Amino acid sequence: MATIGYRSRLTVEQGRIYWREVGSGPALVLLHGGWSDGKEWQGLVAELAQSYRCYIPDLPGFGDSTLWENQPVTVATLVEAFSQYLDALNLKRVSLVGHGLGGWVAAGYALRFPYAVHRLMLLEPEGVSTPDQAWMCNWGRRLIMQTSLWAGLLETIAPLGGIPGPLSRIKMLLDMRRQIIASPISGRLTYARPLQEMNRDFLDQSLHQLLVPTLILGRESASQRQRVLAERFAGLCYEAEVGRLPAGSEEQQEQMLVGRIHSFMDAEVSYPLASRLRAVAVDQSVPTRPAAIAKPSVPPKLPSKLRPATAAGLLQVAPQLPQ
Question: Does 77 score more than 50 pLDDT?
Fold first, then answer.
């Protein structure tokens, strides 16, 4: 790992953010997944720092960062904290790489401030609903409050999880409980909240407005749920490139991801919407961060289901989550 050139903390309204900096060049911000922190990117930093100034924050409530107790545990809170973080560092235009929950935050920021984002790269992003979302929310909230005796019962019947029917969900429930214990904030953000509250955070109804040049990546080694989320996310985007990282060791995966980041950053993006954004961004009379964005001149129809042509090549056909 490259030697981190700078470490610091700053206070925003939502909490205190710790971050690392290294390298020189255009600003590249790396946002970690929901079950980790900024250390997730340590295998990529050495090479990326040769071309970019890398900013690696821990989102509030993760790693060494703090989320104030009086703040709502929502993705909107994280997006606002991230916005204040970039403002404090005077970063007017950045490229974003987000994994999982970090992709949700990055996409949410890009929707609010499209002129402040040069490139958006998402690895198995979260932030869209799934057919079983109500079930996930109901059980997620129960899992937070269940006793160890109840959890022990789940562990006892877990070997039966391969049997079709209700027992097939036992392993999913156990995985959810372990994740909630390991990262309570992420557990609440991902599924342990009322469905109505989660719907306010989901990007289903706004992803068609994403005008920033976007690359969505999936991995062959992704879990069933990650596949579903990535396919649905890509299908709801109006303009996005999609790709897949082949199976391999952790080091090989990191090298392939670094390669995709470099190629996407260096590519001449040809989407009509992205070209329009670039033209507007250089117009100094236009605010860097407008309060809202307009819909495309020809608004795409909001899809009621995935558009296969848009998501083609991201992953193989995604399996359906159990109903």
Answer: yes
